[in-house]
Design brief:
By secondary structure, the protein is α+β, with helices and mostly antiparallel strands. It has two domains: about 45-210, no CATH class; about 225-354, no CATH class. Helices cover about 15% and strands about 35% of the residues. It contains four helices and 18 strands. It has helices at about 1-25, 140-145, 185-195, 230-240, and strands at about 45-50, 65, 75-80, 90-100, 105-115, 125-130, 155, 160-170, 200-210, 225-230, 255, 260-265, 285-290, 295-300, 305-310, 310-315, 325-330, 340-354. The chain has a six-stranded mixed β-sheet with strand order 11-12-18-17-14-15, with no helix packed on it. A four-stranded antiparallel β-sheet has the order 1-4-8-6, covered by helices on one side. It has a three-stranded antiparallel β-sheet with strand order 7-5-9. The N and C termini lie far apart (about 75 Å). Mean pLDDT is about 80; it is low at about 1-20.
């Protein structure tokens, strides 16, 4: 009997120990906190935009052939292709802009200005230059004028949209008048210069540089455009328009938007196709808001357009079969597209289409 009692007690002890073991496994307090932050490199985008149709940097101040007014547009001066020449009666002009913007403060400088002209004598300098089309100057005067064109100490603020236009013009008058010289003497000098085979050259360097200094007080940065998830009141406002009455937020409720990318799953809503022209009927649409941005015309993927203002909602079509799933939004001052205010890209490569 004693043995039996001992066994029972042992079993009871085992149950109690097991009970404590289970309680120790499930009765924990735990807290998990994920911390993450992300940044991208600040934008930097500048370019030289010229008036050549071939390339931004194909400068055509001088040419290999010229058509002189009054000669029925025939080429009356022409060299070998690609060999640029000048002669009495010829002229040229080159227009260019420094355009772009950056998310940092920056400066612009013109340096290494070289104006060389050996097509002249001690008392005869027939080629004249201008940077405004009105005041004409010698090659030495052009160099001085160009070096004063840009204030390299001026600091532009981050997000300032730069557009600095310039032009350089030159001419060699066919009938040049020079005080104290006869027509025959001038013709003889022109012939002498032709035999000497002199050259004329204009070159300079334009540099945009990031700056850690404060921006100039008289330069005002434009508003920074931010894209955000459309709030409910914005969606309701859009639905009041008959074109967008079928906008159903349940179709895109699972999509997350952080201002630069869409992530999640979206459902088709072909009822909205009627609001878009041919080529934009994707069935998948997402409403976003332009926050604190410019007033103008937004072109989505360079096609469908919206008039936009601060905190204005736009409905963006998402193409399931696009090779590059990005939303390109170009905002222009008006619908002539003459003045680009800002260009933005939103990625939706991680969106699932249901």
């Amino acid at each position: 009997m004693k043995k039996k009692g001992t066994i029972v007690a042992g079993l009871m002890m085992a149950v109690v120990l097991t009970g404590y073991s289970v309680a120790g496994t499930y009765a924990k307090y735990t807290s998990a906190m994920d911390f993450a932050d992300e940044a991208r490199v600040a934008k930097w985008n500048f370019q030289l935009v010229g008036n050549s149709s071939n390339s931004n940097y194909d400068i055509d101040l001088f040419k290999d052939s010229y058509q002189i007014e009054g000669t029925e547009n025939n080429k009356v001066v022409s060299s070998e292709p690609g060999v640029k020449v000048v002669a009495p009666g010829t002229e040229g002009r080159y227009d260019f802009n420094i355009q772009g913007t950056a998310e940092t403060n920056y400066t612009v400088a013109m340096s290494d200005v070289v104006v060389e002209n050996t097509i002249k004598t001690a008392n005869y300098n027939p080629i004249k230059f201008s940077i405004d089309g009105t005041n004409w100057m010698t090659d030495e005067e052009l160099k001085t004028a160009l070096e004063k064109e840009i204030d390299s100490t001026l600091v532009y603020p981050a997000n300032y949209v730069l557009d600095l236009p310039f032009n350089i013009q030159w001419k060699w008058d066919f009938e040049t008048a020079v005080d104290g010289m006869t027509r025959e003497e001038i013709d003889a000098l022109d012939t002498q210069l032709a035999k000497a085979q002199g050259t004329v050259k204009v070159s300079l360097k334009l540099t945009v540089t990031q700056s850690d200094k404060a921006a100039g007080t008289h330069v005002t940065a434009p508003k920074t455009t931010v894209f955000a998830k459309a709030p409910q009141e914005a969606i309701e406002s859009m639905k009041s328009n008959a074109l967008y009455a079928s906008l159903d937020e349940k179709k895109f409720a699972d999509v997350k938007f952080n201002g630069k990318a869409l992530v999640g799953s979206i459902e088709a809503n072909h009822d909205l196709d009627a609001a878009f022209g041919t080529g934009y009927n994707t069935g998948y649409y997402y409403p976003i808001v332009i926050m604190g941005g410019e007033t103008g015309v937004a072109y989505v993927n360079n096609g469908y357009s919206y008039n936009v203002a601060d905190n204005n909602i736009i409905l963006v079509p998402l193409h399931t079969d696009a090779a590059e799933k990005t939303i390109k939004i170009d905002i222009y001052k008006d619908n002539t597209k003459a003045e680009l205010i800002g260009s933005y890209t939103i990625d939706y490569s991680n969106v699932q289409f249901n």
